[in-house]
Specification:
Elements (H helix, E strand, L loop, with lengths): L10 E2 L15 H5 L9 E7 L15 E2 L2 E2 H8 L4 E8 L3 H4 L4 E3 L11 H8 L7 E6 L9 H15 L6 E5 L3 E10 L3 H10 L3 H8 L2 E4 L12 H10 L1
Parallel strand pairs: 2-5, 2-7, 5-6, 8-10
Antiparallel strand pairs: 1-9, 3-4, 7-9, 8-9
């Protein structure tokens, strides 16, 4: 699996977007007319299978920021609705096992095959129908993304029953294609997409997914290389 950041497969906006949301937990009920408490139990997939080419070969998810591995920052930001964590990793599974169940890219020809290969390998292990997906390097990952995405997507599906069961974060400028809420039934569409392209945005475009706008772009700030990590340490 290639570097999961890949600019996080950022993509320009498309029309299928919810109204602008913030991360305060205060606006969702009024905007969507739905009780926030109905979010189901979730599985989570953390993508950590990259080769570390821009990190001097280091395994990015295990690189430290403020004395904690990057993957730990993501794990600790996951909401309480997450009852299972699966980590897609191609190296150091014994180290990642401290943070969740691990899985290598499958099948073997897709090893280091990109985020799609990582998601495809991890989805069958997920015990719950709904799954949150996040890269391993989002140290400011928003805890309430799952709730806001669920509320928006469930309303969208009530109005459009045949729509894709996928919601993706949008930072106000572009789509964050690896920050997802998806239903396990989308595994078939993912497998088909991987046969022709390893680009996540091609799969999402084909499925006409629901964008979840976000007021705070820093929530999706990813760590691409050691220089960027050092700069982040200087600021925070």
């Amino acid at each position: 699996m290639t570097e999961p950041d890949m600019r996080h497969e950022k993509q320009d906006s498309k029309p299928n977007m919810t109204p602008l949301l913030d991360s305060s937990h205060k606006t969702t009920d009024k905007m969507m007319g739905q009780d926030q408490s109905d979010i189901p139990s979730l599985s989570a997939i953390i993508l950590a299978g990259g080769e570390g080419r821009r990190m001097d070969g280091l395994d990015k998810g295990l690189v430290l920021y403020q004395d904690k591995p990057l993957v730990q920052w993501v794990k600790e930001a996951l909401p309480s609705a997450v009852e299972q964590i699966v980590i897609s990793c191609n190296r150091h599974p014994q180290d990642y096992a401290k943070f969740g169940q691990t899985i290598h890219d499958l099948p073997s020809e897709f090893t280091y095959g990109g985020a799609l290969a990582g998601i495809l390998a991890a989805l069958p292990l997920c015990q719950h129908d709904w799954v949150i997906i996040a890269p391993c390097d989002l140290v400011f990952y928003p805890t309430d993304f799952a709730q806001l995405a669920w509320t928006a997507l469930s309303t969208h599906l009530q109005q459009n029953p045949q729509a894709a069961k996928i919601a993706v974060a949008h930072d106000g400028e572009r789509r964050q294609n690896l920050c997802l809420l998806i239903h396990k039934s989308e595994i078939a569409t993912l497998a088909d997409a991987l046969k022709t392209s390893r680009a996540v945005h091609n799969w999402l475009d084909a499925r006409q997914t629901l964008d979840i706008p976000w007021l705070n772009p820093q929530a999706f700030l990813n760590i691409n290389d050691l220089k960027q990590l050092a700069a982040l340490k200087d600021v925070h």
